[in-house]
């Protein structure tokens, strides 16, 4: 087993969190171990899709598989990951508004401009 640098660890987190399905898996596993079939149902993806994402999360070192009878149960590889995910969720991000209209001169910051209004 090799020791990763801090930047490698963060890169693995970034890869895992960059995909909505993998992020959903990690959030579900904050609640405790789960079977792949249950995770697939809870997240709303096929079992094959979930299997691919679990493989990625295992490769990133974020989840581990534990035998549970004839099945495998998945859990976060370290209990501190649940706390770290909670901290990330409580972070407030400021995002610049993006204009999606056809008018190149429109001001997306203008309160009269809204995507819902179709302007």
From TrEMBL:
Molecular-function annotations in GO: cadmium ion sensor activity; DNA binding; DNA-binding transcription factor activity; lead ion binding
InterPro entries (UniProt xref): ArsR-like_HTH, HTH_ArsR_DNA-bd_dom, HTH_Metal-responsive_Reg, WH-like_DNA-bd_sf, WH_DNA-bd_sf
Cited PROSITE patterns: HTH_ARSR_2 (PS50987)
GO term, biological process aspect, one: response to lead ion
Keywords from the named record: DNA-binding
HTH arsR-type domain location: 4-96
Name of this chain's protein: DNA-binding transcriptional regulator, ArsR family
Organism: Crystallibacter crystallopoietes
């Amino acid at each position: 087993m090799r020791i990763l640098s801090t930047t490698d660890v963060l890169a693995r987190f970034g890869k895992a969190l960059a995909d909505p399905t993998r992020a959903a898996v990690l959030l579900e596993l904050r609640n405790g171990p789960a079977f792949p079939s249950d995770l697939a149902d809870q997240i709303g993806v096929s079992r094959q899709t979930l299997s691919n994402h679990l493989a990625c999360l295992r490769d990133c070192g974020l989840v581990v598989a534990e035998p549970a009878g004839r099945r495998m149960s998945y859990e976060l590889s370290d209990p501190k990951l649940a706390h770290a995910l909670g901290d990330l969720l409580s972070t407030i991000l400021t995002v610049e508004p993006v204009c999606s209209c056809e008018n190149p001169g429109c001001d997306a910051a203008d309160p009269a401009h809204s995507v819902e209004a179709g302007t």
